[in-house]
Design goal:
It contains 21 helices and 22 strands. By secondary structure, the chain is of the alpha/beta class. It binds adenosine-5'-diphosphate and magnesium ion.
């Protein structure tokens, strides 16, 4: 390749306007895309490619689907239409038949075609009177002198207003020429060799000017791998720092304590619960903060695992070394303090439920549990906070805002965050108090596909509670059409009459005034209509917490037959006797939400039943249909991602996942796993990435993620 004539030494930092052919005016436009330097242009990857290979045959063509087809010009006809427009028709002999290309008002095009010429047409065909037609296709001339100018695959770039494809293509081409021979390779040579990845310069060239379709794939593979590897390395570094920076209490669970804790529960732990408790106990025993994400489908029994972990913490005496400053020598030693634990729920309703459950479970045990939620008087709260601060309270249950916002602990050993879907590495909500950092257990029932979890929660360890407590059966789920509604209510009433308790879920977007009116009228309709004969209660987000708690208690205690509710019951509510549910306007809920809702009736030994009411009869509804078809939360989560498309990943946009340029966590799941494995292996062999072969990679990782993950001190 020729070395371009520039005044400066080739450098990736060279500004685009200094490249031959770019110029100031174009450079100004390119700046709107954030493209200033050679490096920027090289890293501005195409969003798509136009196929100019000419590989399609007449038989492959489909209306409005982009195709490119090679052929020989057999006729060139220029004429003026009755409306006075210049019209050019070019007829082509192609593999499998003839086709036409037409242009209007482009008289100069006629001069560029001659009979016998070989050309490739690319565009969207449509059926014409005499076979397929391309209107204003793009043309690639296969004659000797023009062949070189158009590649078979033409990059299509993301644009900004006032910037055209041709501007970007030209700048990228100039940048490629300018940077030939100076692009540093970030991946160690053995990585490239082992994985069969393209070296950086070839990968850059192929991603911008691919020689074949296979090369597009190969170039992508290299950059996707590199991006995911860098992310995983960054997450590892972050985690390494965390571990070094903060000490955590060592909480040892021996066999005796393990047996004592488990004996408190009215059931045997499932093998999955034992496995996960074991993983947690191993973490707790180490004097570095646990960072564990517990994923378990709705109803899998995460609460028991949380309680187990908290009881381990509150049974453990605080080691003298962990006491700040140590006590004065002249007073007699008081009984040793024990660690405290906190569990935080997303809603007050759920916090109250945890509190009630803990009180029942720990009655007579001497473990003090306090509830910290809204609706308590200032005096009440003051008293509770004092007990927490003095260490008299062992376990605090509350909403995240209140516990994180107000409480000071004496010796906080463990924090459990329940039903948390927004806990990426970038949004840490740990209650760090003083020097020591508590262990953290995050629990989620919104199953995040493992690949996404690895990328999003990359610095957390992941435990999966797979399987359900014994005797659990999948909820029988039906789609109920308007025509079937009467029959459904009859069925629902029959089950209530037989002694079951049930839910009716009504949608509410934000529980605004208008929503409230429609919730109330839905309630009235049920109470005066299909469910007239039963005792109904209504809960929604606007209800005062105490009122809400009262209704929940009535439902739990069997003083109500049916709970009419908005999605406030979506997470965590546990009333095993409630085994039948109707979801009204099911199509207005998300898939994960539907699954969560259904989880409310999958709690007891009796098989749950759920009817998803849709307003239309026969139209397919992808979300509701998927919901009816599967009871597996993980499967549904994957499905949900597919339906929503990669732009709206549950696990990414909402949870503070790191932004990625080229990699797509769903599509590239296998690469995420590969990169994670490789990052682990790399750190095991060289924890500081000290080998010079990592110099470039380490620098890139810190440039890219350092600020976001606070990796400043590394390297
Ligand atoms: P989730 O994982 O959705 O938070 P929960 O912890 O609320 O689920 O548990 C769901 C139900 O299963 C509760 O009623 C709980 O008491 C019960 N449960 C949990 N573990 C077991 C077990 N090992 N055996 C029997 N029932 C269990
Ligand atoms: Mg739960």
């Amino acid at each position: 390749m020729e070395v371009p004539l520039t005044t400066a030494e080739p450098s990736l930092a060279t500004r685009l306007e200094r490249l031959p052919g770019v110029g100031t005016a174009r450079a100004e436009r390119l700046a709107r895309l954030g493209l200033m330097t050679v490096r920027d242009a090289l890293m501005h990857f195409p969003r798509d490619y136009k196929d100019f290979s000419g590989a399609h045959r007449i038989a492959d063509l489909a209306e409005t689907e982009h195709a490119s087809i090679a052929g020989t010009v057999t006729d060139v006809a220029a004429r003026t239409t009755v409306h006075g427009r210049a019209m050019l028709t070019v007829t082509l002999d192609a593999a499998g038949g003839r086709l036409k290309a037409v242009w209007f008002n482009m008289p100069f095009m006629a001069r560029r075609f001659e009979r016998g010429m070989r050309v490739v047409l690319a565009g969207q065909p449509r059926p014409g009177r005499q076979g397929w037609e391309f209107a204003h296709p793009e043309v690639r001339w296969l004659t000797a002198d023009e062949q070189a100018h158009t590649p078979e695959w033409l990059a299509v770039y993301p644009l900004a207003e006032g910037v055209q494809q041709s501007h970007v293509r030209l700048a990228v081409q100039a940048a490629l020429d300018h940077s030939a021979g100076i692009c540093p390779e970030a991946l160690p040579p053995e990585t490239l060799a082992e994985k069969g990845l393209l070296p950086i310069e070839q990968a850059l060239r192929e991603i911008h000017c691919p020689s074949t379709a296979e090369m597009i794939v190969a170039a992508h593979r290299r950059f996707v791998y590199q991006e995911l590897l860098m992310l995983q390395l960054a997450l590892r570094m972050h985690r390494g720092q965390q571990k070094r920076a903060h000490a955590a209490p060592a909480i040892a669970v021996d066999a005796r304590l393990d047996a004592r804790i488990r004996a408190r529960f009215p059931f045997e732990f499932t093998p999955a619960q034992r496995k996960v408790c074991g993983e947690i106990a191993a973490d707790l025993a180490r004097p570095e903060p646990m960072n564990r994400l517990l994923q378990g489908d709705v109803g899998s029994g995460k609460t028991a695992v949380a309680i187990y972990s908290m009881l381990a913490a509150v049974a453990t005496p605080v080691m003298p070394s962990a006491l700040a400053g140590g006590g004065p020598g002249d007073t007699p030693a008081p009984p040793p303090d024990r660690y405290q634990a906190a569990i935080m729920a997303p809603t007050e309703l759920l916090a109250r439920q945890h509190f009630t459950g803990l009180e029942r479970l720990l009655a007579g045990s001497g473990v003090e549990v306090q509830l910290l939620v809204g609706g308590q008087t200032a005096k009440q709260r003051e008293k509770i906070l004092t007990r927490i601060a003095s260490g008299e309270t062992d376990i605090v249950v509350g909403t995240q805002a209140l516990v994180c916002g107000g409480a000071r602990f004496h010796h906080l050993g463990l924090v459990v965050i329940d039903e948390q879907h927004r806990f990426g590495v970038l949004q840490r909500a740990v209650l760090q108090q003083g020097e020591a950092e508590p262990h953290t257990l995050v629990m989620t029932a919104t199953p995040i596909p493992r690949t996404i979890a690895h990328a999003v929660y990359g610095d957390l360890d992941i435990s999966v509670l797979d399987g359900q407590p014994p005797g659990r059966q999948p909820v029988a789920t039906y789609r109920v059409t308007p025509a079937e509604l009467d029959r459904w209510w009859e069925f629902f009433r029959g089950k209530l009459a037989a002694g079951r308790r049930g839910y009716v879920v009504v949608p509410a977007v934000e529980e605004s005034k208008r929503d409230l009116a429609s919730i109330s009228s839905a309630f009235e309709e049920l109470a005066n209509g299909p469910l007239e004969a039963f005792r109904l209660g209504l809960v929604h987000g606007r209800l005062k917490p105490a009122a809400k708690a009262g209704i929940m208690e009535d439902f739990r205690g069997g003083r109500l037959d049916v709970l009419v509710a908005t999605s406030v019951i979506e997470v965590g509510i546990d009333v095993p006797e409630a085994t039948i549910m109707t979801i009204l306007d099911a199509e207005s809920f998300g898939l994960a939400q539907l699954h969560q809702l259904r989880g409310r009736v999958a709690r007891g030994a009796t098989r749950g039943i759920c009817g998803a009411v849709t307003p239309s009869g026969d139209e397919p509804h992808p979300r509701v249909d998927a919901f009816v078809a599967s009871c597996d939360g993980f499967e549904l989560a994957e499905q949900d991602l597919r339906l929503r498309g990669p732009g709206d990943l549950v696990g990414t946009r909402q949870s503070g996942a790191p932004p990625l340029y080229l990699a797509d966590l769903l599509r590239d799941g296998a690469v995420v796993a590969e990169a994670r494995r490789d990052a682990l292996a790399t750190f095991e062999a060289d924890p500081e990435l000290a080998d010079s072969k990592y110099d470039r990679l380490r620098k890139l990782v810190i440039d890219r993620w350092g600020e976001m993950l606070g990796l400043g001190q590394v390297g």
